[in-house]
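Batch job 17 of 40 flagged for manual review because the log was empty.
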Amino acid sequence: MQDEHVHIQREPDDSFDRILRSELRWEAPPELTSCLLALVPGADASVTLQHAAQPAAPPRPQGWYATVVFVLTAVAIGLSMAVAWQFYSAVGAQFGLGEMWSQLQAAPAIGLQRLYDMLPASRYLIALLIAVRDQLHWLLVTAVLWLALDGWSPNVTLRRT
């Protein structure tokens, strides 16, 4: 079995590296820590230096607070979307985007009619493609229902080779 850890070859430490390493690591003296703990009202005197060195976990918000923030955020996003919809609707009406949209919706029908006029036999090919599409659609619906009712879970594990 190969060793999974890659060892990086480094040049020998020079004096600058040693100075930086010593200056970047700083620990508070125990006297300072005990004096600071004595200033805190209600602090337990039996707190060891090891516990004082560990950062306290940040306080978690209460459940009702998180719910209020979530609801207010959802309202703000909804309001922003409504204002943006109104703005872009007004801009779209000014530039005639409604007419362009209706032309885009009619374009496939116009294109098929031109194809039918140029190649009358293409009707059969298009009808066959539509029938195949409908059958593939039902196969997809069947596969999704099968997987949902069978209890399939998408837990995919990636293996390194």
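Reviewer: the log was empty due to a logging misconfiguration, but the result itself is present. The mean pLDDT is 82. Unflagging and moving on to job 18.
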